[in-house]
Here is the input.
Amino acid sequence: MVIIGGEAGQGIQTVGDLLATVCWKMGLYITVVNDFESRIRGGHSFVQLRISDQPNSAPSDKVHILAALNSKTVELHKGDLSEGGLVLVDGEESTAAGVTAIPFSKIAREVGGKIMTNTVVAGAIMGLLGTPFDIFEELLVKKFGKKSPEILDNNITAAKRGFESIGENSFKNGFTWEKKIPLGLLLTGNKAVALGAVAGDCRFSAFYPMSPGTGIMNALVALTDDFPLVVEQVEDEIAAVNMILGAAYSGVRSMTATSGGGFSLMVEGLGLAGITETPILIVNAQRPGPATGLPTRTGQPDLQFTIHASQDEFPRFVFAPGTPAEAFDLTVKSLHLADKYQVPVVLLTDQYLTDSLFTLDRPLKVPDSIDRFIITDEDLDNPESYERYAFTESGVSPRVLPCNGNALCVASGNEHTPDGHLNEDADNRKRMMDKRNAKLPAMQKEMSAPSGYFEDSDILLVGWGSTQGAIREAVDLLRERGQEVGCLNFTDMWPFPVEHSQRLLGRTKRFIMVEQNSSSQLGLLIREQTGLSFDGTVLKYDGRPFFPIEIVEETLAIIG
Amino acid sequence: MTTTQDFDNDFENKWCPGCGNFGILDSMKKSFSNLGLAPKDVLLISGIGQAAKTPHFLKCNMFHTLHGRALAVATGAKIANHDLTIVVNSGDGDCYGEGGNHFMNAIRRNIDITLLVHNNQVYGLTQGQASPTSKMGFVTKVQKHGVIAEPFNPLTIALNLGAGFVARGFSNNREHTRQLIEDGIKHKGFSLIDIVQPCPTYNKISTHGWYKQRVEDLYENNYVPDDLENALAMAQEWDEKIPIGVYYQKEGPTFTDRIKKLTEGTLIDKKYDAAKLDGYLSVS
Here is the structure.
């Protein structure tokens, strides 16, 4: 693993992206985790690059190269250095044993300015890893070719000088660099959700900026020129959810993205979608709270909140992808199911999944067609007598769009009779609640079982969402140590997949919850829904993603 | 052609006898049929309050939403399909209190919808509390020593934010209100029609008679609504006289005009083309 650290504004993320792209193009697997504070300049930021010839999706605790653009990086991360690991610092001479000084900023100034420092650093790291330089050069041409020839030349020179600055060295953890076609894209969770949104025919999105949800909107905005998609930054999150409700009612698939605080503001709108049976998608990119909490950090604190959010009860779907590939698929699925059942859907991601860059191990598949589950006058014997909330066995009433024929679309957030008009009659209220809830059995059948890895083991680690990669790697490490351990990773959270859970958890001797919140929210949900109790917890809620080794050590302490 | 009867429905109306809402409801039906609109052509969107119940009392497409949020919902509905004729029914509490932020931003966007604010300076649905437009000193069960804040002036705010159609009506001048609603719908862009109305149950100050003595019809006076300074001066008037009519009108590009891809047709009518994703999803 490589760590590059420095102050915000020094272009550390750029170095990470350059390295990641080169590795990906050569068929290596890379996970890039950005760790930054809620500030644009200063402070301490670092990027962790896990490079491997095997699939991986979690940061590792073993650091092989530590590139430090400030002294704090050395202080903070030197202890993580593995045997044979190297520390690169910006300077003329080494100040300590095991520290290699390379005049990054001096080289940068010589070839075009301090701004080139990150390219020099990227060059030096690639030198150590033994990357063929022409691959790097190709990438720089792609990245800077459209700018002035001078900028491109300077970057290539900076890269070359960095590459050569390494000279003879004892670094043993390079790669063989045989070009292989990657199995999947190099993608952040943000971009995966945005691509899934257009693949799922999302046409409108309104949002208010809030980390880490903003990244999803940035990724979506980047697609607006190529797709029938309008994205609008609006006055607040309340406007955002209500605008997508209006657009969805009008007939286009619509979504918004936010984080816990913004989601809190959207909750009344979520309820409006529930009672008016309007299909919307809200992405809650979780971060630690409450209130402002830790704006740029990660966590899984909102599962119980999300499945219960809003006053009273109504059917909804909640999904929590574990990887960008799953984020893409579940975004497509969410938009489809919202239309099919006329319910709101919440997609729970988190800062780790949305902001980190992952190498996918499979291609992404676009749906063959989009079914909108919308009818028109032609489908009706008597459009004049159409009722938007007609009682049906499935609870799903045929849906027309407003101003699309003689069948009128009458919707109300007040309790209503089948014709959509407000009504307080006791009997009607009960029937309408029962009608909406009648969707639940079919909705539950749409839920996939948690994915398993050595799931027949006597001991299972159980998690949900973005901890998938770290948990699976922890399983590998535990098995290497002779422990019969497997895992289950939930993605389909609500309606809770009760039967799948009973089947998979009922046959194991013990199961341990691995979650990024302080109360084991999924563990409590499993107990509530299946009657099965967890036998221990590995909980991390300091705002940082799991290292697999942390899960290994805490698991060993529990199982003895 | 349509008639006002085409908009009648049999939903039971529970407004108090003498409520100004009856006049507004009547004017709406007349303006729609005068414009040749049928129930299938109209989308009414409302928030919460007695005014926001209006869409239930006539036959049309409707979305009765949340307190304060009608304009946000209407904006989304218009972006999705800008061919829709959208009229929003709101009240002084719904629009200027709970929905104040959306009110300002709908004006900024110049979204092409017509906003009718039923302004009776009091909360009816929640039984008689002061509203944002209540006068200083207005006594209610809650504000028992009288309101101690200045009233919100929707017209000066709208004018200052650059609204392109700012009008005031009086619920009991039904023909006049009908004309205002027609002009508002015909106006290309955001139209604010603040309709002052009596609340016979909770507002014993601004009664039908009180308004009757004060309203002055700008249509009759052949007022030309092209002077912002004049409009701002009229918007300050209340105690002595209340001008009713279009204070100010100026057309400009609407919100959906400014979204380039919507100039070639509505968002809802565009085709889904998955092949365009190939370039983004290809690994090589």
Observations:
- Chain B touches chain A through 51 residues (CB under 8 Å).
- Residues 23 and 171 of chain B are 5 Å apart (CA to CA).
- Chain B has one domain: 4-281.
- The first helix of chain B runs from residue 21 to 34.
